[in-house]
Amino acid sequence: MQTTQTVITTFEVNPGTCQDLIDELSAAYEGFIRDRPGFRAAALHVNDAQTRVAVISRWIDREAFMDLLRDERMRALSRRLNALCRSFEPVLYDTLAEVEPR
After folding, report:
1. Does any domain span residue 102?
2. Is the distance from CB of 11 to CB of 54 less than 8 angstroms?
3. Which of 16, 17, 18, 80 could potentially form a cystine with 50 if both were Cys, beta carbons 3.0 to 4.6 Å apart?
4. Against a cut of 0.85, is the pTM above it?
5. According to the model, what pLDDT value does residue 82 have?
6. 101 in any annotated domain
7. 32 DSSP 8-state letter
C-alpha cells in the first residue's frame, strides 16, 4: 500500500459560529481545494453540541498538503476561519493501513 498523508484538523467553535465555519470550509473544498494536485478526499464532522468541528482530509503526500498551505486562497481562508473559532489545529499523519468492508 502506498503511504498517503491524512490531515485531521480540529476546530473549537461556539454553537453560534459552527454553521458559518462549516459553510466556509464547504465552499473552500468545493471552490478550490478539491482541484489541488494531490488531493484525495475530505470529510467534515461536527459534534452534537456544535462546539467542535473536525475535518479529515487525505492527500497523496505531505508536500501536496504543504503546497496547499502556501496558496494565497488558503491563507485568506485560514484568516477567516481563525475569526470564526477559538482555535484550530491541523495534525498530519501517515496513513499506514485502511480497512474496508469485505
Report:
1. no
2. yes
3. 18
4. yes
5. 96
6. no
7. T
